[in-house]
Design brief:
transcription (chains A, B), DNA-binding (chains A, B), DNA-binding, homodimer, transcription regulation (chains A, B), DNA-binding GntR family transcriptional regulator (chains A, B), mainly alpha, Four Helix Bundle (Hemerythrin (Met), subunit A)
DNA sequence: CTTGCAGGATTGTTGAACAATCTCTAGGCT
DNA sequence: AGCCTAGAGATTGTTCAACAATCCTGCAAG
């Protein structure tokens, strides 16, 4: 068969196919149920403090209690649910201490990723930045359409893609968890516009700094960015 | 009843009791099974690549399949097991890429914790460092007794307690997971002495720097420490 | 050497059942 | 009235047995 230069291309294709397959045969029932619940929580249909009844959800989600409990476990370890023994599962209510904790981790991880990009600049193709630009433009479009929750998710995805530049599966997992918890916090804040609007512009600026390969400057910018965001959420939190 | 000065002591006692109760009250069956499996994995009885049969383990652990599967889920999210749909659960086989990934995160988190201590030095009582000293001495004692796996766990605990100084529940959780995966890596290395011996001394030195409140120096030392450890593991890994 | 096809084994999911625990209400006591 | 106690009812924790879906193995055919 054909070998040589075509081989690496073939391997790359095999990887993408493998990824697609892995995405398709998810543990179906349990993970499907978890997906639905995850959306309900992150979109606010299940507010912090709400209890999730087992028998009720078995009927709604059309899964058995055992499968539902496996879904609960999945979400528990994402921080989107908490178990209270013999009392049930609840959507956690985060407080100011959690805000500080979450943002501390975000700063550490994200700033390190950006700073670390300088070391591997040569091997990093410009195309890796494309998802970031897509997110920025998605946020701008949603803002024009006055759809602020959509702006929020686009901004979130921007940061997920930013972390993704590090090619670290564990960082990706941690970030997914952190951002999910962050969404939980957003629901106690009434005005999504003030919450998300300032960061559209900041994300674009960050993207442009990355594109210009000014990594140290980008890292400093991002650090200040996250401090600003933390202060905003804390303020909204205290005055609720 | 007695009030005043004795009250805070009583409250402290209540907290420790509450913690003990919470530890005993665990979802018993599932978490107990998970505990046994966790030990088997981290101690090497279940080597990387091993498959865990459900029916076999239900008999050994004397729990139902559903409960066992919940235990599997728990360990899956600690990174100690991986699920392959319709094929079963396996002890993951980590490779060099995982070593690099794990150590990158360790460096980021631990170095940041140490550096961050400078900001809150005044509010940090000296007693918070005691667990670290205990770990160092435990490692030294185990080394004298030629019990190198014990040295390894003591060293691990040193780093767990180090992260604990940050008072961040999420960092604690992440570190627990990272160190569990690190143990997985240790099992592919034949000589535990060479693996753990150098770090007894380094941990003591790190402790002394912290005690002297030389946080920046400690952070730099820790960074170099972790780079050294990473290189050692990578070398042992490649020559196996 | 590859392809296709049973057959057996293992996992995925379900439903029902029982035990353990919590919550809430009612009643008795000081 | 206020507080403690007991018990009923509801919910969760755990087990079991069964069936469906999928994977692995070995073998036969091309």
């Amino acid at each position: 068969m054909s070998t040589g230069g075509a081989e690496t291309e073939r391997q790359a294709w095999l990887r993408t196919v493998a990824a697609d397959v892995a995405r398709l045969d998810r543990s179906s029932s349990a993970e499907r149920a978890a997906d639905i619940l995850r959306r309900s929580i992150t979109e606010g249909a299940l507010p912090p403090g709400a209890q999730l009844s087992e028998i009720e959800l078995t009927e709604v989600l059309e899964v058995s209690r055992n499968t539902l409990r496996e879904a609960f476990r999945l979400l528990t370890h994402e921080g989107l649910l908490v178990y209270k023994l013999h009392r049930g599962v609840f959507v956690p209510e985060l407080d100011e201490h959690d805000v500080i904790d979450l943002y501390r981790l975000r700063r550490v991880l994200e700033v390190d990723v950006v700073r670390g990009l300088a070391d591997r600049d040569p091997e990093l193709p410009a195309s890796r930045l494309e998802p970031l630009l897509d997110d920025v433009e998605a946020a701008e479009a949603a803002a024009r359409a006055d759809r602020w929750p959509v702006v929020g998710t686009a901004n979130m995805r921007f940061h997920e893609h930013l972390i993704g530049l590090a090619d670290s599966s564990r960082m990706d997992a941690m970030t997914g968890r952190l951002l999910a918890e962050l969404r939980l916090l957003f629901h106690v804040i009434a005005t999504p516009r003030e919450l998300h609007e300032p960061y559209i512009e900041r994300n674009r600026r960050l993207f442009e700094l990355l594109e210009a390969r000014k990594y140290d400057e980008a890292a400093a910018d991002l650090n200040e960015y996250l401090l600003h965001s933390e202060r905003a959420i804390l303020a909204a939190f205290r005055s609720r």
